[in-house]
Amino acid sequence: MTTALLTHPDCLNHITPPGHPERVDRLMAIYSALDAMDHTGLQRLDAPMGTDADILRVHPQVHIDAVKAAAPATGMVALDADTHMSTGSLKAAYRGVGAMTKAVDMVLGGEVQNAFAAMRPPGHHAEKQTPMGFCLFGNISIAAKHALDVHGLERVAVVDFDVHHGNGTQDLLWDEGRTLFISSHQMPLYPGSGAPHETGASGNILNVPLEPNSGGAELRHAYERIVLPALNEFKPQLVLISAGFDAHRSDPLANLNWDEADFVWATQALCDVADTHCEGRVVSTLEGGYDLDALAASTRAHLEVLIERGTHG
Amino acid sequence: MADTKVDEMSFEQAMAELEQVVGQLERGDVPLEDSIKLYERGAELKKRCETKLKEAEEKVAQITLGSDGQATGTTPVEGL
Q1: What is the ipTM of this complex?
Q2: CATH level 2 (architecture), domain B6-76
Q3: Interface check A191 vs B, CB under 8 A
Q4: In this structure, is the dihedral angle defined by the CA atoms of residues A5, A9, A10 and A11, taken in order, positive or negative?
Q5: Which residue of the set A8, A63, A125, A185 is catalytic?
Q6: Stretch A118-122: mean pLDDT, rounded?
Q7: Which is the CATH superfamily of the domain at A3-312?
């Protein structure tokens, strides 16, 4: 079996203002790292466009209409202090949706063992009717609902190790008892949510705040004590990963001290869960990560674990 | 974000701004990009508050009482 790598050059046309951390160069850095990799076991393909029907599984029509209406004909527009759209952003966002539904189709269809979507803009901060935190549509939640509603799965786990709380995913999956959403994140930090008492409508959300300046040891402790036991109890039929790499010690937007080995460890641990419960079926997508070297190295390390599992799993 | 140098602040000033910072972080009404700067400002303010508290503790004197129960003087508390 192989690993699918979904991306699209349209994601380079989502332009943000000069100095903005979520920038085109992020994806360029990832592409450079991927080009240097051995592509054995990797199936690289262009992400298709997602559809409104995909998005409507988690966002109301009014949100889609608002994002479409905000898209500028020229230049750039700011939706909030963080979140911008250029002329190419809408298409890039729809590619992000399509990448995830396609990845789920490929993994559940047995075409590939697992998949990674290298897309931007990211998605995990977008709430039902609120684009925010660089995000327009909740790509990972859309993937979860696609797996449930289209493929008929009954239990989908979503694990978010981006350094910021996945408030959007939490909002979109709050009432979805067929999903277990687990977010580990630095607290306090943007967006301010993600306390342990936020548990979803049916105990389907698990927030695992991490202390500022903590590192890999604390990550492993939290995963071994809280995250992995919860996943094993849930017995997912598919594991989705919101893979932000901004918990890296070099990241300028946070204070955690993870390194590439920690991302490898977390990825392996999540693949182990998938091996135990769902024949290794994992779909991962890029979220944050704003130090270009750390982002490129961490993404590569994450992808190499997926490839290794796809090849030898 | 205030321009006052944190290491020149009084305890009250540092505490007041720290409360403001914590409130902003908890409410999430600060942009993602600025959140880290705000957190770091908060950490600096917390350190200042702790320093000022320590100074105050060191100034606390143990009141020594005479046999009639009246205060007769002060002895600096050690070990704080």
Answers
A1: 0.73
A2: Orthogonal Bundle (1.10)
A3: yes
A4: positive
A5: A125
A6: 98
A7: Histone deacetylase domain (3.40.800.20)
